[in-house]
Structures are given as structure tokens and as C-alpha cells.
Design a protein that fits this description.
17% of the residues lie in helices and 29% in strands. It is of the alpha/beta class and 211 residues long.
Length: 211
């Protein structure tokens, strides 16, 4: 085990050192190799992660022992997967990502309750999914710095199978997005989305029902 970790670490250092001199294709393979090494080194930290999952090497990760990722899924560059202890809940917080799901560059997914992302889900770039807030937005908290307010969740986030979420969309606490739905770019989803529905805007509203 130590030998394998040493080889992965040495390879990572060499690949980073060579970065400025690599062609586009070589940089792509560098990205892939670094990700494979990172995934291999961190596999045992997860609650469950299938053998063919790909994680970018620059992933920000917290609470991997409460994260499950299904086969064929990938997490792109500069993403953040964070799971915090549940606030005022009976169950431990969790994040589940299904099979063949692609999390695009710069996604921020943070759970203090439960976030469930289904199979064959496609996330664009810079998407936020959060099941929690800092405090309850009450006057009694006004003198407490936001970073020190307790995390509060109004409910889990559930994203069902075959959902497509466009770039820079935000999905907030207590929301369920039905199977096969589409969330347009830059949308802010505050309410449930029925299956086979296209939503857009801030707040997101239905603009099309698929026939």
C-alpha cells in the first residue's frame, strides 16, 4: 500500500512539473492520470465508490465517509463535495451520486442533511446544490457573523434520474427535481420541479412540459 502511494505521489509531482511544457493533448492525459492517481489514493476514504469512478485531482473534499458514488460517474475540475454533520436532525448527513452521472467543472455540492443525485444526470459548469443555510434569517441572529451561525436545513435535495442542469444553476434546500427534467442555465430552483419539465429563471418556473 505504501509503495503504491509513493509511486502515485512521485508521478503527481513529475506531471505537475512538466505542465508548462505539455501540448493540449498531453495536458488532457496529464489531467486524466492525475485524476486516476487521486481517485486511487482516496478510494478507501469514501463510504462507497465504484471502481470506474473518476475524480479530478483538485477536488475539494469533506466528509467522504458519508459520500457514495456509483459506477461510471465523474467529478470534473475545481469541484467541491462537502458533507457536514446534520443540524437538528436525527440522521447523519449524506451525499449520494448515482451511476453514469457527470458533475461539471466548478460544481459546489454541500450537504448537511441529504443530497441524492440519480443516474445519468448531467451537470454543466459552476453549479451549486445545497440543502442548508447559515442560520434562520431572524433578527435574533443579526449580531452573529454568518460564518458562525448554525447550519440549518429545510429538507433534503433529490435530483432524479436523467436530469440535465445547465451552467451556473443553483438548487436549494428542500427541492426535488423530477425524472428527465431540464434546469436552464443561471436558474435558481426554490421549489419542486415535476418530471419531464423545463424550468428557467430566478426563481425558476416551468417554461415547457415535455410531450
Amino acid at each position: 500500500m505504501m509503495k503504491r502511494k509513493l509511486v502515485a505521489l512521485t508521478s503527481t509531482i513529475i506531471l505537475y512539473a512538466l505542465f508548462p511544457f505539455l501540448s493540449y493533448k498531453a495536458q488532457f492525459w496529464r489531467y486524466r492520470l492525475l485524476g486516476i492517481a487521486y481517485t486511487s489514493r482516496n478510494r478507501a476514504r469514501f463510504k462507497m465508490i465504484e471502481s470506474d469512478v473518476f475524480l479530478s485531482a483538485d477536488l475539494i473534499l469533506r466528509g467522504p465517509d458519508r459520500i457514495e458514488i456509483g459506477r461510471g460517474s465523474s467529478v470534473g475540475p475545481r469541484c467541491s463535495l462537502t458533507v457536514w454533520h446534520a443540524v437538528g436532525g436525527e440522521n447523519e448527513a449524506s451525499l449520494t451520486i448515482g451511476e453514469n452521472t457527470s458533475i461539471g467543472e466548478g460544481a459546489h455540492i454541500t450537504a448537511a442533511n441529504r443530497i441524492s443525485i440519480g443516474d445519468n444526470v448531467l451537470f454543466g459548469k459552476h453549479i451549486t446544490v445545497s440543502d442548508n443555510n447559515h442560520g434562520n434569517a431572524t433578527l435574533s441572529e443579526i449580531e452573529v457573523p454568518p460564518s458562525r451561525r448554525a447550519l440549518v436545513s429545510k429538507g433534503p435535495v433529490v435530483i432524479e434520474d436523467n436530469v440535465w442542469v445547465g451552467d451556473k444553476a443553483t438548487i436549494l434546500t428542500g427541492v426535488t427535481i423530477g425524472r428527465g427534467s431540464i434546469v436552464a442555465a443561471n436558474s435558481v430552483v426554490l421549489n419542486d420541479v415535476p418530471p419531464a419539465t423545463v424550468v428557467a429563471g430566478n426563481p425558476a418556473r416551468p417554461v415547457k412540459q415535455m410531450q
